[in-house]
Amino acid sequence: MAKQSSKNAETSFIERLDIISNKGNQRVSILDGIIRLMYYESILEDSVKASIVFVDSGNAVDGKTVLEGLPIVGQEKVYLKFTDNNEVSIGKKPELILYVNKVTPISDDTTKSMVRIDLVSKEYILNEKIRINNRFDGKISNHITKILTDSNFLGTEKKLDIEETSNNFNFIGNNKKPFYVLNWLSKKSVSSQNQKLGDSAGYFFYETSDGFKFKSIDGLLSQEKKKSILYNQTPDSRGDKIPPGYDAKALEFNKDNRIDVQEKLKMGAFSTRTILFDPFSCYYEVITPNAREVESSLKLAGKELPVLNDEFNQSNFNKDFSRTTYCLLDKGTIPQGNTKQQIEKSKEENFEYGQILNQSIMRYNQLFSSKITITISGDFSLKCGDAIFVDGPELSAETKDVDKRSGGLYIIADLCHYISTKETYTKLNLVRDSFGRVGNHTNRNS
User: Fold this and answer.
1) In the CATH hierarchy, which top-level class contains the domain 126-219?
2) For residue 204, what are the β-bridge partners?
3) Is pLDDT larger for residue 399 or for residue 114?
4) pTM of the predicted protein model
5) Torsion-angle region of 206 (φ positive above 0: left; ψ -120 to 50: alpha; else: beta)
6) Where are the domains of the chain?
7) Residue 281: CB partners within 8 Å, gap ≥ 6?
8) Does domain 6-121 have CATH number 2.40.10.10?
9) Which of 339-354 are b and which e, b meaning 16 or more Cβ less than 10 Å from the residue's Cβ?
10) Measured in Å, how far apart are the chain's first and last C-alpha atoms?
11) pLDDT at 446
12) Could you say which DSSP state residue 135 is in?
């Protein structure tokens, strides 16, 4: 694997950028006019996105601009392919096809104009035209697959990476959009491989250039690193002296570990209370999930979750919590089977609120406990959701060691590839749930 130095930040190769007219299938390439291309992925987004700024000359289509001659009115199909300086391509396998979602003229004169077009995936636009009213029974991971692939719903042909869930959930779509349902189900999911019911829960649904993914929080945090990145201030403007074991040197490095205790407590990141009530039997229960009690069963990126002051612990029964969720027990809701089987299952819980709901709330909030933003030379092999190992310098007057507290494994939450006529960069927003460097840049278990 070639190392990423600042030399790799030189302009990359945009090999294909064709826009297809909605009327007549006329094809126009805007390669020669491109000023800037920005490509985005995020675990918090349902679709990959791209933004392209180009010069629209007056003789592009029958003596007119592309905007008027094609014309571009929205939903045009766009084929993209671009390759970094290590010959890694986006848009080769699988082919990257996006659609025009927004057109913004930037400047105009008598012979040419500058235009920005914003692109999204096909499913992003289809989502606005589809409503789900069907009944779904069984495993949540099976529901995800069906909504994505069934021709009655999104009907995607893209590659899927669906992590299997352990819990079942029966529901009716109630006229909701597909992406709404997919994200709604994410909060109700427990991984059969990486999470323990009652201790952890929560998934992310997102898209990369490889296809759609449905991955658990603990699954993301337990994966092996894809690359190791170092940031230091050693005089090495070209990045030629990257230490052994590291794949790239960060050009920019910013820690965003802003501490807001009150906000974390409001969101229920570490201690919550669940009040359960069954209106039919008048059953009442109070549960207080606590992150510290289940920490050993969580898949952490670092050594430990933030250690809070014991002075603020409440020892009284059911008192140590910072957020309360009230739930009516979901018993006997649309059980599967014939009439006899449905009667037998009428007292079973369809969704186990006490074992899942607040556990996913805590994990979502814990994941963003530590944040780092880095910029490296263009690297199109990275995808959002990938794990990378990051080391930065320790702030000390005496040592030149790496930072043992903030260094270590991180998940790519947001990614942007920036390509201009002169340079190519990849900017990453990295997150993790814990502090303390585990392992090193060559072996996570060391």
Assistant:
1) alpha beta
2) 215
3) 114
4) 0.93
5) beta
6) 6-121, 126-219
7) none
8) yes
9) eeeeeebeeebbbbbb
10) 22
11) 58
12) E
Q: What is the DSSP string of 239-301?
A: -TTPPTT--EE-SEEEE-----HHHHHHHTSSB-EEEEEETTTTEEEEE--BHHHHGGGS--S
CA 434 to chain centre: 18
Q: How many helices (H) and strands (E) would you count in the chain?
A: 9, 25
> For 5-19, 41-55, 185-199, which range has the lowest pLDDT when averaged over its residues?
5-19
The two tokens of residue 145 are: 């697959």
Of 7-16, 226-235, 256-265, 422-431, the poorest mean pLDDT is in: 256-265
- Give the integer Cα–Cα distance in Å for 330 and 348: 8
> Rg of the chain's alpha carbons, rounded to an integer?
25
Model pLDDT for residues 130-183, shown as the tens digit of each residue: 999 999 999 999 999 999 999 999 999 999 999 999 999 999 999 999 999 999
Give long-range contacts, CB 8 A cutoff, 24+ apart: 403-407: 403/437, 404/436, 404/437, 405/435, 405/436, 405/437, 406/255, 406/257, 406/370, 406/372, 406/435, 406/437, 407/437
How confident is the model at residue 397, as a pLDDT? 45
Length, in residues, of the chain = 446
Q: 248, 342 in Cβ contact below 8 A?
A: no
Burial pattern 137-167, b for ≥16 Cβ within 10 A else e, equals eebbbebbeebbeeeebbebebeeebbebbb
What is the Cα–Cα distance from 302 to 137, expressed in whole angstroms? 37
Closest CA to 438 of 399, 401, 390: 390
Top mean-pLDDT range of 254-268, 309-323, 337-351: 337-351
Question: Per-residue pLDDT tens for 178-232?
Answer: 999 999 999 999 999 999 999 999 999 999 999 999 999 999 999 999 999 999 8
- Cα 154 to Cα 52, 145, 172, 174, 342: the distances in Å are 26, 10, 17, 16, 31
Are 167 and 356 within 8 A, CB to CB?
yes
Is the pLDDT at 97 greater than 70? The verdict is yes
Pairwise CA distance, residues 196 & 191, whole Å:
7
